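REQUEST ID: PR-0412
SUBMITTED BY: lab tech R.K.
PRIORITY: routine
TASK: structure prediction, single protein chain
INPUT:
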Amino acid sequence: MRDTKVIKFETLIEEIESHLKHIDQNGRLRSSMPTVGVNSRELKEGNPSLDLIYDYNLVNDYAKAIMDKSTYECGVHCYMNEDNFWVRGQKKRGFADEEKKIRYSKEFVQFCKMNENVVEGYKFIFWSLMILTVEKTDAEKHLSMVCDFAQMFGITDDEFEDIIRVIRIVYQDTEAGAIRTSRIEKIFRDVIKPPKRLWC
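STATUS: complete
OUTPUT:
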């Protein structure tokens, strides 16, 4: 029987994800998501990009909930190819070797630096930091990797600190303080102003 706390946590992740789906860098819903052609976009269920930092097969059930329930949108030329990365529904996922992981990391960074994909980098950092709140194994190593990705995405220190504030708000920390950067406020607007949270 599954732990009711994990189930409750999954509900929180799904609620947050419902606010982040299809959001652009200005906090607006993307007006259209073409499904064919060079500008096509696809919403990937599960978030294999998080495997760039975390080993799905080693993290706890709370971290797995984030990796399973969060999503990211990728274009037709997205860095991730399911045929040689992971297969949804299988417990085994990740990278066959470190060289492939490094290559995908570089391609993912380039993907997120494209103007229409910028928000995906912010969401990636948010979910990566969320995992750190529930999975403490190798926390310093993982935090260092998250910071490296944030720097490569061009996320400022103030924006990084605001993402941490968003997470504190999610956990109902009354001393989290106000969001100070406009981009974070726009992207996470509906996350920081929800009705009563289902997890604390």
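NOTES: The chain is about 50% helix and 5% strand.
REVIEWED BY: pending
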